[in-house]
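Incident log, structure service

09:12 report received: a user says their structure output differs between two submissions of the same chain.
09:20 pulled the input from the user's history:
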Amino acid sequence: MVLHAAPTMGRDHKKKRGGLGPAPIISPPAFADSILIGDCIEQMNSLPEASIDMVFADPPYNLQLEGELHRPNNSKVDAVNDDWDQFESFAAYDQFSRDWLVAARRVLKPDGTLWVIGSYHNIFRVGTALQDLGYWMLNDVIWRKNNPMPNFRGRRFTNAHETMIWCARSKDSKYRFNYESMKALNDDLQMRSDWLMPICSGVERLKIDGKKAHPTQKPEGLLYRTIIAATNVGDTVLDPFFGSGTTGAAAKKLGRHYVGIEQDKVYAAIAKKRIGKIRRISEEDILKIEQKREQPRIPFGWLLERGLLEPGQVLTDSRRRHSARVRADGTLITGDFKGSIHQVGAFVQKAPACNGWQYWYVEKWGKLVPIDLYRQKIRAELH
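09:34 re-ran on a clean worker, output below:
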């Protein structure tokens, strides 16, 4: 890891892939795995254009706090009152937001994405700037805190969430979304846009002399999830408001590269020490995320050609409500209806569409086995 004020210019280099050879080898950019000290806009402008796969930004919230906040026992609440969170007006904050978002968009690759997190104080103003600048909204994700700070004054609802906006660089971006990984993280259920997660506390909260090292440290689990959702091994993640280095810690752990920008040398030193303790997992097969559309297409007929299924064999759904027989040409038949595994699956369910690989099962050794296991077997043989 490097701490310096300006990066060395560099670009990704990729080996071309031929046939079914090894996956592309991507060298990290020269500025990867470093913390750049200075103004975030100036430092982003010094990076090569289209060099970043994902940006995660936790910008100043411009909290507009009035006076000190105390608990019922009269102890002071350690709220955010640092100079970097203060702006003289909404207009000044809006200009700052536009400036750093323009710089971030320049360094994003054409298919890159950006996450930005905020509270009700700032996230709507940031959202307006995102749309004005040509970013394309994908989701707003609600981080719902199961242990939020209590509402001591009793004048409004307890603030129990923050909002993240996830957007692509442009409407035409072919952005990455690791749907299957998100589903796997959520016990095989489609992950929703409301995430229940505790705030950073306990042993995870970095402290100096018993006090918070950084007032807005985010839980590592939040960054873990966003990085898994939108990147792959070897990608480069930029955090222009690096703070205590949570983005870098999660990126390193997951086999991604990071670039952090931080104007405060104390915070930068804290982040460097923290990330230095992280062990990068070296086994690529543990980390690599392969989306289904990137996997080789396996026609159903190959299962017959390889003897994994036989013509005339009966397929059923998991509850044995519907059945169909396998024809020699790789189609199915049920009653008078013939078609592909997908067409017949949709027909028996009276549904507009069906993923036949996931719908149909075959009985083996007295148990129902999904035919998708055979597809996975053939795919493994091709690697």
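09:41 both user submissions now match this output. Likely a transient worker issue. Closing.
09:42 reviewer note: The two ends are 34 Å apart (CA to CA). The domain at 2-293 is CATH 3.40.50.150 (Rossmann fold).
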